[in-house]
Specification:
Elements (H helix, E strand, L loop, with lengths): L5 H16 L4 H17 L6 H20 L3 H38 L17 H17 L8 H9 L12 H9 L6 H34 L6 H32 L17 H7 L2 H18 L4 H18 L3 H23 L10 H27 L3 H12 L14 H20 L17 H17 L13
Helix pairs in contact: 1-2, 2-6, 3-4, 3-5, 3-6, 4-5, 6-7, 8-9, 8-16, 8-17, 9-14, 9-15, 11-12, 12-13, 13-14, 14-15
Length: 484
């Protein structure tokens, strides 16, 4: 079941109504929330419910045992059991074929010919997200940051909480679990704000991302016959698609959670307007980057923090981030390129601070900031090509044609109507300009903007967005991050 489907449009109001009918009885509310979440997840494939139940059960027991044991060795045993089960499931379903194929290729290079068929494995939706949630729970108990859950129902509901189950935000137990354990009462203002954020998320997904998708597919699949201008359009549209698709999901998830009385973590902070790669990663998929920072990078820093080890630690961090996104060499290279740029730009920012126009006038400061944003956007557009390409060869061929001077003097017409492409491109650019002026708000439709304090302007905006969502809805597409 996906947010932009008819099934979810029926599911949400029914669950919302029953949930608040149970207000005042926290145990029944949590039990119903768990059942609704399992129904939501099982809609794809009921067999995957056993995986999420196994992950939840193992970590609930492990958390209890880690807290009870006084012997540090025994605590480590339970922690390693949690790591083995969760990472074992993630590794098997996500990376088995990747390692098998590369193992065969490695031996083929030395003259050995293996005939091994690819394993018929379906990647469970959301496994990269809920396994990280449960892992953070046991690790935090081991560190003494939090106490374990006493009741399995709230804990299982925390792991499977349906708004953010399949693509985040990745919630820590010490943030979300207390909200599940505490009594909740309906708040009209928060519910309306939640509906507003859901509308904004749907607009980004249905109107922007899903309408970019066909052109991105056509351009990337036919890149060898296209010239540089249209290749640039393809890269740009995919960057917009990826941002609107993923941040749109987060907006819908946060908005839906608010309808049920929960506050989820902010996951995007207008990252497309970052002035550097380090700033971008502090504003993109915030809950993922903070998870890797706390559970991968910080332990490495405590082990070795100086000299070359600091650089190695950053490369390890981004390598893990790349591999987390998928079992492809393009994601590995995506992570390594980001690491290289992260380290380089951090070093250069300290040396080039003398070029900053601070104190030289507001106009110069804004012009300097805009130039940095545009340069960083162009850098990201190039990097994200590796994210979208089928393989490394495809990525280098695409970029090779893009940078070939001979390909810059022809503007192709791709196999879809040019006027429609122009509409999608202009709509995307208008959306980005709008978001530029909305920086500082939690999401694009938040009422901090003075314009939206006028009821007429507010409701006109809502109506136009609903019309656009209805009129420009295309093929019902999954969210991109479902495959991660």
């Amino acid at each position: 079941m996906i947010f932009n489907s008819i099934e979810f449009a029926i599911f949400l109001p029914i669950v919302f109504g029953i949930y608040w009918m149970l207000q005042g009885n926290i145990k029944r509310q949590n039990l119903f929330l768990l059942v609704a979440s399992y129904f939501f997840y099982g809609w794809w494939d009921w067999r995957f419910l056993f995986l999420i139940a196994l992950s939840s059960g193992v970590d609930f027991i492990a958390g209890q045992q880690i807290y009870r044991e006084q012997d540090r060795k025994k605590q480590k045993y339970w922690l390693w059991l949690s790591l083995a089960v969760n990472l074992g499931m993630l590794g098997f379903f996500k990376y088995s074929n990747f390692f098998l194929e590369n193992f065969i290729e490695a031996f083929t290079m030395f003259g050995y010919n293996f005939q091994v068929e690819r394993l018929n494995i379906v990647l469970p939706v959301g496994i990269s997200f809920y396994t990280f949630q449960t892992l953070s729970y046991t690790i935090d108990i081991y560190k003494g940051i939090m106490k374990p859950a006493k009741d399995p129902i709230p804990f299982f509901a925390y792991v499977s909480f349906f708004p953010q189950l399949v693509a985040g935000p990745i919630e820590r137990a010490f943030d979300l679990l207390p909200q599940i354990n505490n009594t909740r009462s309906f708040n009209y203002t928060k519910a309306v704000d939640g509906m507003r954020q859901i509308l904004w998320g749907l607009f980004k997904k249905v109107v922007i991302a899903d309408n970019c998708a066909p052109y991105v597919h056509d351009i990337f699949s036919g890149a060898e016959n296209l010239h540089s201008p249209i290749l640039f359009v393809g890269m740009t549209l995919f960057t917009v698609q990826l941002y609107c698709d993923f941040s749109g999901y987060s907006d819908i998830a946060i908005g839906v959670a608010r309808l049920f009385g929960f506050k989820l973590s902010k996951n995007f902070d207008y990252p497309q307007f970052s002035k550097s790669i380090p700033e971008f990663w502090s504003r993109w998929h915030i809950t993922m980057t903070s998870w890797f920072r706390d559970y991968i990078y910080m332990p490495l820093i405590r082990w070795k923090r100086k000299g070359a080890f600091k650089i190695i630690n950053i490369f390890i961090l981004f390598l893990v981030i790349g591999v987390w996104h998928g079992a492809k060499w393009t994601f590995v290279l995506f992570g390594l390129i980001n690491a290289l740029l992260y380290i380089t730009q951090n070093a250069l920012s300290k040396r080039n601070s003398r070029f900053s126009p601070e104190g030289k006038g507001v106009f110069l400061q804004k012009a300097y900031a805009l130039i940095r944003i545009l340069f960083n956007c162009f850098t990201l557009i190039l990097i994200i090509t590796f994210f979208r390409a089928d393989n490394i060869t495809h990525a280098f061929h695409y970029l090779g044609r893009f940078f070939n001077p001979e390909n810059w003097f022809v503007f192709d017409i791709i196999p879809r109507h040019y006027l429609s492409l122009r509409f999608v491109f202009l709509t995307s650019m208008f959306f980005l300009i709008y978001e530029y002026f909305q920086q500082g708000t939690e999401y694009g439709l938040e009422l901090k903007n003075k314009l939206y304090r006028n009821a007429g302007i507010r409701w006109t905006t809502y109506t136009l967005m609903i019309i656009f969502i209805y009129y420009y809805r295309g093929v019902e597409l999954d969210f991109i991050y479902f495959q991660f």
